[in-house]
Each structure stands twice: as structure tokens, then as C-alpha cells.
Amino acid sequence: MTFMESIQTVFQKYAVFEGRARRSEYWWFCLAYAIVNSVLSGLARGLSGGAAGTLLSVISGIVALGCLVPSIAVVTRRLHDTGRSGWWQLLALTCIGGIVVLVWLIQDSQPGDNQYGPNPKGM
């Protein structure tokens, strides 16, 4: 899955918490979000004290809120791809749990179909 396909897929499935997501879909989305957030935050800090900095801070917050639901949804689908419930992402709210969830997000897909649907790789 390419960078643009991943971003499109995540936003097309904005609040879809069913099915499975490939690693590439998840990680390309994370990269895109990190780049956009870093650019907006950096510009807001660089222009701090003025109206432009305040506006960019507000835009950065709106982008963060707008990406909250798709982020949770793609993590849920990614965990489904590894054979785990999406509820496991709540484990990331703890220090050690975040590492565990990260390891699960890095893992390869469960081969074949699982209880969450067919393998998105087609294997």
C-alpha cells in the first residue's frame, strides 16, 4: 500500500472499527500525521506572540481533534489484523502497556482469515 493509498483508506474508513488494516496503512498514516503536526506546531512556535501563531495553534488543535477518531479506528483495525481486540489499545494508557501495544502494532498480519475478517494482504 502506498503513502497516498494509506491516507485515503484511513480517512475513507474514518470511524470503521471493523475489519483489518495492514502495517503499511497504519505506519504511513502515523508518518503523515507526525509530519503535519510537526510542521503546524513548528510554524506556530516560530510565529508565537502574533495572530498568525495563534491561528496556526488553533489549526493544529483542529487537525489533532479531526484525526483522533481515525487514529483510534486504524489502531483497532491494525490490532484486529494481529488477532487481538481493539480494546487492547487502552493498555497504551499505561507506561509498560504502551510498549506492548507498540510491539503488537509492529507484528505481521495473522495469516489467513481470522475472526475480524479476511487478511488484507490476500494471503
Topology overview:
Elements: H1 3-12, H2 23-46, H3 51-66, H4 68-81, H5 95-106
Helix pairs in contact: 1-2, 2-3, 2-4
Features:
single chain; 123 residues; mainly alpha; 62% helix; 0% strand
Description:
The protein is mainly α and about 120 residues long. It has one domain. Helix content is about 60%, strand content about 0%. It is built from 5 helices and no strands. The relative contact order is 0.17. The model has no long low-confidence stretch (mean pLDDT about 90).
In short:
The chain is mostly helical and 123 residues long. The chain has one domain.
- How would you describe the shape? elongated
Annotation field: number of helices:
5
Radius of gyration over all CA atoms, rounded: 16 Å
Strand percentage lies at under 5%
Number of domains: 1
Task: Report the uncertain regions.
Answer: none
Please give the alpha-carbon distance between the first and last residues. Answer: 15 Å
The helix/strand class is mainly alpha
How is the biggest beta sheet arranged?
Answer: none
Query: Secondary-structure element order, as H and E?
Result: HHHHH
Total strand segments: 0
Which bin fits the share of residues in helices?
Answer: 55-70%
Overall mean pLDDT stands at 92
